[in-house]
Amino acid sequence: MTVGNMESAQLFDAGEKGRGLRATKELSAGEVVFAEPSFSAVVFDSLATQVCHSCFRHQTKLHRCGQCKFAHYCDRTCQTACWDEHKQECGAIKKMGKVPGENVRLAARVLWRIHKDSGIVSDSQLISVDQLEDHVADLPEEDLKQLRTDVHTFLEYWFYGRKQHSVDDISHIFGIIKCNGFTLSDQRGLQAVGLGLFPNLCLVNHDCWPNCTVIFNHGNQSAVSSALHSQRRIELRAVGKISEGEELTVSYVDFLNLSADRQKKLKEDFHFQCSCEHCSQRVKDDLMMAAAESEGNKPSADKVKEGTAFSKECLEKIVRSRIEKDYCEVVRLCRECLEKQDNILADTHLYKLRVLSAASEMLSYLQSFSEAADYGRRMVEGYIKLYHPNNAQLGTAIMRVGVTHWHAGQIEVGHGMICKAYGILMVTHGPNHPITRDLESMRMQTEMELKMFKQNEDVCHTITDAALKKQPIISC
């Protein structure tokens, strides 16, 4: 797939949803619909010294820009590749004497790019950046107050010869970023590290059960020949078969919320009422709030109400304890809550899944792998009943739990989960993404260990027992 090639998608009038994109041909699961380089992008303030400002990879040792002392890069190659983007920013930071927040930096980068290349930078770009929706008129008072603060900071920061902009023009750009900004992840896809604007991607409408997913590809600047370098870009990938003429959709929110909660978040953040099939028909809401059932018996409505209220309160305490880094308290709360939920809430209930997720993650961190694996397995079983089978979040969750089983010495189960995760992420991320390549290495390693186990069970049982006897770093 050539970056910028839009032959598989076309702009069309999507009725009440406004503009949209639809497929111009039949597409298969895992196929790249289009790849688009960022119009502009910035690293988050909090990670400015840990993430390369060109390729957005997380690195331990970065080289700092000698002029502004703010931007950081993997090496000279990344710095050179980013100079066109950073040149005006570098001068503005030196002039201002301090670095503004990421929203102000991104707004300035967008306007500098518009002045340099206009709002359309290639023949494949379907819409000018300044024609994107801003929804400034729909912002609540608190957001408008922040907007006015950002505009004031922008006016201090901005310079481009004698070119100045009105408050309305600047507000329009900030509104576009708020509604259309795409969060960029690191090379492993595990941490949000920046924010970018991708005009064609902005035309893809939402559906809670979408036919596409979006991943960030960091490009390649390491090849000896610059002719082999590739740009950082997003890739829109089909998660299943898409018919010619079918609208292309992605999900703006995590599906693992009740339909009413998804609709509320979409209304607050993106200013539209979702009327997709899964929202209008409340699909899977029953599973997300299901009561436990054993041999046809269910707990009373009062017990379910009590268990739900207790779980909600417990989850708030878990969040606070995680912020305070009281990890043993997190584990204690999770165990207590799961005991209370037993025989009351089903394993697909949202509150139980959230507690299982917190317990598995925290116990893995504390290296209590056997207990973490058990909670993780239950969580994944619930996820599989709720998520789309080719959902990227499902794939990464199965991957993490598979690795936890591997660390716990449960090689066969771990290998099976790693293989399942690999199949999902081959669709959502493709074979060349770092997370998929990592999974391929783990798949081969666990397969080799599994063969060794079957050939010499006694030796492998000794290895497994040794692994299980590893003491956790903290005993909770």
Tell me what you see in this structure.
- With 476 residues, the chain is mainly α.
- It has helices at 76-96, 102-117, 141-157, 167-180, 259-270, 277-280, 285-288, 301-323, 327-341, 350-365, 369-386, 392-407, 411-428, 434-455, 457-468; strands spanning 9-13, 19-23, 32-37, 40-43, 63-64, 72-73, 182-185, 192-197, 205-206, 212-217, 233-238, 249-250.
- A three-stranded antiparallel β-sheet has the order 3-11-10, with no helix packed on it. A three-stranded antiparallel β-sheet has the order 4-8-7, with helices on one face. Strands 1-2 form a two-stranded antiparallel ribbon.
- Helix 8 (301-323) packs parallel to helix 10 (350-365) and helix 12 runs antiparallel to helix 13.
- It starts with 8 loop residues before the first strand and ends in an 8-residue tail after the last helix.
Layout of strands and helices, then pairs:
Blueprint lengths: L8 E5 L5 E5 L8 E6 L2 E4 L19 E2 L7 E2 L2 H21 L5 H16 L23 H17 L9 H14 L1 E4 L6 E6 L7 E2 L5 E6 L15 E6 L10 E2 L8 H12 L6 H4 L4 H4 L12 H23 L3 H15 L8 H16 L3 H18 L5 H16 L3 H18 L5 H22 L1 H12 L8
Parallel strand pairs: 9-12
Antiparallel strand pairs: 1-2, 3-11, 4-8, 5-6, 7-8, 10-11
Helix pairs in contact: 1-2, 2-3, 2-4, 3-4, 8-9, 8-10, 9-10, 10-11, 11-12, 12-13, 13-14, 14-15
